Amino acid sequence: MKVFENKADLIFEINSLKQQSKAIGFVPTMGALHKGHISLITISKNNNDITIASIFVNPTQFNDKKDYQRYPRILSDDIKMLEKAGCDIVFTPTEEEMYPEADNRQFDFGNLDKVMEGKFRPGHFRGVALIVSKLFDIVTPDKAYFGEKDFQQVTVLKHLVTIMRYPIEIISCPIIREHDGLAMSSRNMLLTKEEREHVSLISKTLFEAREIAKKLNVEETKNWVIQQINSDSLLKVEYFEIVNDINLESIHDWSQNENKVGCIAVHVGNIRLIDNVRFY
Ligand code: PAF
Questions:
Q1: So where are the chain's domains?
Q2: Cα separation, 58 vs 153, whole angstroms
Q3: How many whole angstroms from 28 Cα to the centroid of ligand 1?
Q4: Taking the model in full, what pTM does it have?
Q5: What superfamily does domain 2-173 belong to in CATH?
């Protein structure tokens, strides 16, 4: 596996791969890799000639400075994991390399960045869009792979590709869960042993909610989920919304003929976790 810190060197390598008509799959990450990331590498490897990953903890997408400082950074372990997974190239730029000067671009995502994560983490999706567009300009992949745990992020990035006219297919990949159902996330490694035991209630409640939804209306189901999780003294729900999976508008009635996804954000101690589940 080749490791590049410098974008000029990476672009040189990619130009040579393009001359050989290699299909490029791209997995952007912020490191602290887990099996969820590795599943993206595996899917990319099965569908492309070359798989490129990036590791960069992007400062512009953190609206909370402490969250940025706390974010786990374990670069040498990450590189070993990618190598073992058969990744071909990894790009590990510095902040200077990605933001040599301030980038003041704004993006119009309509409703997509106003709700849920967008409401509680102002500026977050602008930061995600900034870094992903910079990475796309460098890597110019055919396909880019993102985990569905960050459901709203995938929706926003599909829109980014449309407004920026990138000839890149965004592939949304299934959530990978721990054996007790917890959605894999780099932030899980920051949980204390006690917190870790409590957070399985999040996914357990989401899965139960799909059954409860057969008896309760949308509003009642939402309230039930919030109450269940808040009944645990360590957990505090920030939001739980049931939305249309394309435009992220709230669902008010189960009879609405749209694909429905329930998205949640929960605080546990200093950590904030997100998860989601489909309703049928
Ligand atoms: O999902 C992430 O890890 C990040 O938001 C991403 C897409 C790598 C951009 O920094």
A1: 2-173, 186-275
A2: 14
A3: 6
A4: 0.97
A5: HUPs (3.40.50.620)
